[in-house]
Amino acid sequence: MELRPLLRLSLSHRPFPHRLSPLPIPRPSPLPLRRLSTTPPHLAPSPPTTPHWQSLSDQIHTNLGSLGTEIAGVQQRSPPSPSSPSSLRPPNPTSTVNELSKYRPPPSGPGVPPSEREHHLHIYAHKHNTMLTLTSTSRQPLLVLSCGNLGFRKAQRKSYDAAFQLAAYFLTRVQQQGLLPEIQALELVFRGFGIGREAVMKVIMGPEGVGIRGKVCRVVDATRLKIGGPRGKRARRLG
User: Fold this and answer.
1) Are 209 and 171 spatial neighbours (Cβ–Cβ below 8 Å)?
2) What is the pTM of this model?
3) Taking Cα atoms as reference points, which of 210, 51, 209, 62 lies closest to residue 132?
4) What is the pLDDT of residues 46-73, one digit of tens each?
5) Is 40 exposed, middle or buried (0-12, 13-18, 19+ CB in 10 A)?
6) CA 211 – CA 173 distance, rounded (Å)
7) 130 and 136 in contact (C-beta within 8 Å)?
């Protein structure tokens, strides 16, 4: 009977109260926060930006200036002295465009008409005769010769020897009349497929054509070819 209150006392009494109770957790005291500065940092000044249209204009001026220099060199103009005020000015686009419009390249190609400086030597070689004609730059005849002018008659005019002697005599007459210094460029115009065609070419490539061979700038074949057309002539029958 006496043990019950002792048991109740022992149960109600805790021998180690500090181990069962939660320990207090220490909290750090709040530190004073530093206020952020609102003053903008001192940055280096940025370089001034050039507008796009201004840089494009400067590039166009530079390109036009280089083109004007090339044109001046082609036209063999003397450059201005460095002390002149015109050389210190920037190039004028309007004047450069005008110079470009005046410049014309030398003519070339099969479809371009002959230049005004060229003389023409027409070689007409057909099966009965050979004729040579030298024309000026304006297409006016200066010298005209054929095998008949050398004394060849009838069937003799179509021979190779007659055409060879004609070409040699023709070049001699050109030299005697003083026409060779006037010829700056010469165009050879062949017409026909006669035997005199090869004879004239042989003279020009030989020692007789030394003075005129270096002035030949173009060789043209102006032989007329019949395409279709009327009926041909009846073949000749002998015997």
Assistant:
1) yes
2) 0.51
3) 209
4) 655 655 556 666 776 676 666 666 655 5
5) exposed
6) 13
7) no
